[in-house]
């Protein structure tokens, strides 16, 4: 998710005159697989826990639960060790979790005073609990969250301190280069056109492809370009996990000929260029048929360089934050008191606008330091005179359009539906320009603006919107557009620059900053709105960290140093494992 490497085929070859001819990009596509989640390590400390023991202090343990999406079931994730006779434990055992920016991971920390060796928690005294999200921990200053422990009425249960640290191996990438000697000849009229395919092993013994090199044409002694791959993609952080490398002869029709294979591991590769990293390429079928078969050539590691990537979490930990801006293009979609309206205020469930707001807002708010969000509406007649406005505060206060948290935004949205008359065309340019004015004043990256636009209409000002996006692509901002309702949104796909970079009057956007999705594509068929919202959030937010990093890289902005790590007071503790 973070720090995606550029596929090797897009890197400049940097070759000398002696290298063989390379295949063109049109002949062969270099592949780097999707990268697993980064991992974070959670450390837990408590202060002033309840004392449940008569003749000594409590013997606390922390139990972490995670919540399944959809059914809200809590599942035990893990337990710390028990620490004897203390109300201020600093647990040694850590929780290591996968972290996705775009997913809301609900956590529950339960604390018990352990009275026996029974693993059954009901046999021990409950000391309280704390609820939060993983994003809330990561998004706190210094990735350190301190909250009160609750759960026992009328009692002060103390506080818990949870800190998150991104695991180092998740941030490492390796730059490797290989060559081969005396590979088998596979082409009738020439030599071979070899390329390498890398696979990492899975827990069940299967393999997942993680990289392909480029093709080197017409040679049995190829030298491939150096390529960069994250340690997560190569071995998922397990240095001893088997890595299988297959060698193929490229054919234009796609029926590539298998030359042979070998296995290695990250730990072996990390030795660098040496006799340990010269591998015999073995073809099992040939080996089984020919008694005098030795190998189908050798592959040699020429170089191995470890690079540590700057990550999204480095910036968050250093005090950078996301400024969330909500803009609803209300347009004309019928009377909100009628079920046919997309703004229908159903007392029993959220409408489509509400679901999109909550799905995205509940995740983003964890990374906004003050949780105050400007919420604006576009396209309505305002009281008392019915004048048409394309920019008004949802809370009715033009001097202070800020709402506290996503709940405050939801409240302001519903209140506005009772006081304004929906009206007007679906214009995006005023919305984008509004936020761009703020982003232009904070170019040091200390704030990164995320604009959420929810609309039910086809865009009316495409040319102006494209120009606004091209201008905004130079600023610290990203734009999420969610289309709700049955309208045809095909034209708006053009704004999402995943395939073709958006342009206006001959100028191309500096970065891809727009993500557009129609909400109807994410609605769960069984009617489970929680699943619908989770799917929407996962898709529309997945690109934000990379868009954030792309701005920082282009501007040469480095993360600020993180605050000094939390050092708990020293206590004399006896630890029971």
Automatic annotation (TrEMBL):
SMART domains in alphabetical order: C2, VWA
Gene Ontology annotations for the cellular component aspect, listed alphabetically: plasma membrane
Coiled-coil boundaries: none
C2 domain segment(s): 20-147, 156-279
InterPro entries in UniProt: C2_dom, C2_domain_sf, C2B_Copine, Copine, Copine_C, VWF_A, vWFA_dom_sf
Superkingdom of the source species: Eukaryota
Protein name: Copine-8
Organism: Malurus elegans (Red-winged fairywren)
